[in-house]
Amino acid sequence: MMNEDSSAASGGGVKKFFQRLSQTYQSTLDRSTPHTRMRWVFAGFLLLLFVLRIFIYQGWYIVCYALGIYHLNLFIAFLTPKIDPEFDPYSQDDEDEGPNLPTRSNEEFRPFIRRLPEFKFWLSVAKSTLIGLICTFFDFFNVPVFWPILVMYFITLFCITMKRQIKHMIKYKYLPFTRNKPRYQRVNDMAGPGPGSVAAGHAK
Asked: Which PANTHER family does the record match to this protein (predicted)?
């Protein structure tokens, strides 16, 4: 009985430890959500460490190639709309080939909804880069290969994939960025100071 109680207590302690670790990890992610620039600086730092290790030790080219392919797939999903107009049966028009974002200033503003949101894109990049960096510490991942062939494969795949994505963007007239799109002010900012504030100013 005592052995069963002690094993149950130790099992419960391990479970509580992993629960606390999961909660700490999730709270850290939640706090980092609004800090977009700092998150991407951290991901870039991890990627720089990975590239420097590949360059200095002249190995793990297979890991580098796999990581590049994975990042390319993430980037394409980041640029792609959540509902692809090519396969959306409710978006087809008789006069047009699919739904378009507004092209004139008097049209309704419709935000671009990504298939892969920015936060998940960053998290996947950071996790995969960290895993790739850890793989460079194990020799069995260092498969000998002629690396210029991998570079040519990746450049070819990148060009073909981006060409297809750009054609898709031109065909359905959307931009996966919000930089030059209209932003609306708040009602309070547009209304300006109310009559109560004016009266208070006269009272002073």
From this structure: PROTEIN RER1
